Amino acid sequence: MAWIQINTVVKEELAEPLSDAFMEVGACSVTFEDAKDQPIFEPDLGTTPIWASTKVIGLFDAETDSQAVIDTLVQILPEVAAKQYKTEQLEDKDWIRAWMDQFKAMRFGERLWIVPSWLEPPEPEAVNLMLDPGMAFGTGTHPTTALCLTWLDQNTPTGLDVIDYGCGSGILALAANKLGAKSVSGTDIDPQAIIASEQNAERNQADIKFALVKDFDSRPVDLLVANILAGPLKELAPEFDRLLKPGGTLVLSGLLATQAAELQAHYKAIGIQLDTLETKEEWGLLAGIKL
What we know:
291 residues; alpha/beta; 4-stranded antiparallel sheet
């Protein structure tokens, strides 16, 4: 099926209204892109990152009258003039296959692989997690997820009780399970994350309990892994302290490397010594022991 896309660049405050307008005139989907290479490292929880200069793209069937769409958009949102819109013809191809071809099996450490379900594992005897890209964050492509997966491979949680706090897709919980953990549980504030995690656990035949944070209840464990953001990691320090056994290990990621020292000092004040710092690109991972 052939497609066209209609796009324009707007200021931050017009991005959401324009997205709504695109959907009102029949767009199949609307996406945002950064128009001026402005990184957003730590958006607020539960928000969609929007840049100061945002490219808004509406996708339409190729038979759509683009000029009629633009005329209607101008009526709905007169702040954006007709001449600001661009229409582009997209190549007619199998978009599902093209999307699938972007994703390859990835290895972390020595024996841990993340493999899209439509591919055969490159090393069948390795520890293979079958995981597809989806709505919940976490397929191993982000540096913080990669840091956590590599740490788990190098520090095998065999026989340990483990919590994945902020589980996203459940990828870290699955890794801990497949690497020999005694028990694994996961939690997140997002209902979609719980659904995705449960589906991924079922696909990988993994016995893992997932629950929303408000419903999550756990005895103290040997290992807690949290790949979130620096702000929540700081706020959650008392909760992580409660959930860890004395001598238990805490692994934190989702932080920028430049934020590591502040977090180390914050956790040291409550008796958790985070001595290990691993970095990948501008991101960091901290690991240490509850004294």
